Amino acid sequence: DAMVIQNPRYQVTQFGKPVTLSCSQTLNHNVMYWYQQKSSQAPKLLFHYYDKDFNNEADTPDNFQSRRPNTSFCFLDIRSPGLGDAAMYLCATSREIVTSAYEQFFGPGTRLTVL
Amino acid sequence: GNSVTQMEGPVTLSEEAFLTINCTYTATGYPSLFWYVQYPGEGLQLLLKATKADDKGSNKGFEATYRKETTSFHLEKGSVQVSDSAVYFCALTMDTGRRALTFGSGTRLQVQP
Asked: How many Cα atoms occupy the beta-carbon half-sphere of B52 within 13 Å?
């Protein structure tokens, strides 16, 4: 089945130790998104890629970076995780930039714990 | 800016009860509106959507009507099942400008047998 896969599902890191979260998709979609979802809060968009074009949200901290080496894969790098970065990180894809016509497909998320 | 407000949960119902989860929005312009559902351990899935005023989205027995006059998109189901237990997110997007989804904070539904 075509899907969005995130690895690992659970990640534990230490304060200040760089961590990378992975997302892959078999949908061949042009757009990939990273959201941060803290407990009992709405998912918040961090950035998205339209093909190879990177689009950063204005309030995304510089501590967060992303890479998209090819259509299928997208990585979220957190350079120096702080306790406030503990959250669920959701990857999503859509065929084109989301409008009413294009659904976003979400992966199961990676829950990040910072010790 | 755009925002979505949902009723706080958890909402606890008995099987076959009627469900309403309230959602209101603030947007400049005319958004498209969505309900997403997140089952335990899974990603968000699109449940239904409506793209213009008075549209009704429906899927799996769930319905929501886009009410421009009250800026609302309340989710309803006539008879819930235990398998409907999940977190439900209301969201909007604009068809121009910044086209990302803006989510509400989610409402957890617990259905008891």
From this structure: 1
